[in-house]
Amino acid sequence: MEDLGWCKYFSSQYETSKTGSEFLPARVTEDNREIYRIVSATGEFLSELSGKLRHEILGRADFPAVGDWVLASLRESERRATIHRVLKRRSKFSRKIAGRKTEEQIVAANIDVIFLVSSLNREFNPRRIERYLTLAWESGARPVIVLNKCDLCENADELLRETESAAMGVRVVLASAFRGDGIAEICEILQAASENTGASLTAALLGTSGVGKSSLINAILGTPLLETKSIRAGDDRGRHTTTTRQLIVLSGGGVLIDTPGMRELQLWDAGEGIGQAFGEIQELAARCKFRDCKHESEPGCAVRAAVESEALDVERLESFHKLGREEKFLEAKQDAAVRSQRTKELRKMMKSVNQFYRDRGR
User: Is this model's pTM higher than 0.70 or not?
Assistant: First the structure.
């Protein structure tokens, strides 16, 4: 089980659970509309949630996600299972779900490293990388940026320097799934044991459609396990290949989670992540004259002074402001959603109380 990432953090939860040997630990390797593929010490099983667990679930984030460790009852002869409990997560990469609804979507759980994949074509965007980095830092995992398709780029070194300036202190790998550049470096990261647990390291690949995540995985595996598609020639935009999240156990060591390309990536509870992704701005802010300086037009602002002296890129500061505004807006929506949910629960409770007294008076 250690090859799957099982460690003391999860075994201690299992040992203190009241299930005894009735339920066994397994890891979620694929999520396909509430039908889960899990793998345990005895192999793979298709599984679904127990009625009790489904009843206890309060929101989308409570459902199992790829990378989760669960306790399940296994029906060996059928290769089927029922999930009864999701163990507490060690880390998670979350975003706000697409659309108007304010709800958390967990993309991958219990990860040690996040490979943020960007392609070196017309889709290359340092501001998008900053957005991904913000959520990666918030997840609790260590981010690594992979600049793929360097074989198709004439100024790869220049874009590498631009990325490094937008990702202070984060490891950046120049890669080509086609030519093999950077694959050995990625494998070296994957094969290292987790610093926190000593078990096999779990990594997730994240990025927009067409950046070459499936091609990178095939290059890492040394075999065409996943289907790949070419990008559109007219605009370099990608096409969806991976449609479900799935977990792959590597023969050389390590666990890899592949995710579908993301058309949009909205923040979720990312206040600390913004601070880490823009660490140099936070350091400059500590030197501002006023503690509540917004770094716009206030006198004595060390951040604006750095922009004027060209020590800080103005576009990076604008990105910092944009993500900050988005986070505050989302926090307000979350508070409104909580108030709305509490109101619904109160109405439901009062309805039950009223019904009780009506029945009592009969």
Answer: yes
